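Wait, mind explaining this?

_____
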Amino acid sequence: MTTHQALRCGILGFGYLGRPLAQKIYEQGGAVSALKRRISSDDVNLPLDLEAADLNDPAVFQTAFWQRWADKTTWFCLLPPSALQDYAGTLRRWLALAEQSGVQHIVLTGSTSVYGERARLCDEHTPPEPQTEAARQILAAEALFWASRIPHIDILRLGGLYCAERHPVSRLSGRGRLGGGARPVNMLHRDLAVEALFQTALNPQGKRLRNIVEPAHPTRAEFYTAEAAKLGLSAPDFDPADRTDGKIVTSLYA
């Protein structure tokens, strides 16, 4: 088993998940190289190797900073499809770079959106039913990773992410007659997502797929009402006449 002192990681996407993940790895004695689109004032003097580049430019993969990733045994891809003009194409080039560098372990964050919206119980054996272009792009990227020559691949399909600083309830606060209040949620607090990513990096074991979702599945009305109260926001008003059901995503693994 890898120890956290030995973790040497590259992080593609130094943002909502990448920054706290890098901090956790550093605090546990690891080393991090990370890439983001542009450097901000918050990034100055961070204790890691941080570079800014536009991944939409194919020439980015010929730049010298990737040499500093070559000694990193685990690479993370935390970018959503919305971050790239050609999601699968860009990740294909990044994967080729990883293979050339002899990377042993890659962790890709996906999404439970690949299961679609049909009401059913979904686990890792459930066939995907993507209904959005983003979900279809995620599935295409997953296929690339499965087919790669990297010996250890982990695909983590994350539930809906939230935390106090960036919470989806802020967009719903005070709104009325919202639909889907009876549908169950498949949520994941950012802290739990970061912990799952960290633990996955510690234990490479071949090619694996995992759903990472909180075990509780309250209705949307219950979840967002409770979360609004925690944050001191006005609760959204869901239409009680809308009783449509939705999927519940679980995992077969601890």
User: Anything to note?
Assistant: Helices lie at 18-27, 87-101, 133-146, 169-172, 190-202, 220-231. The chain has one domain: 4-164+188-215.
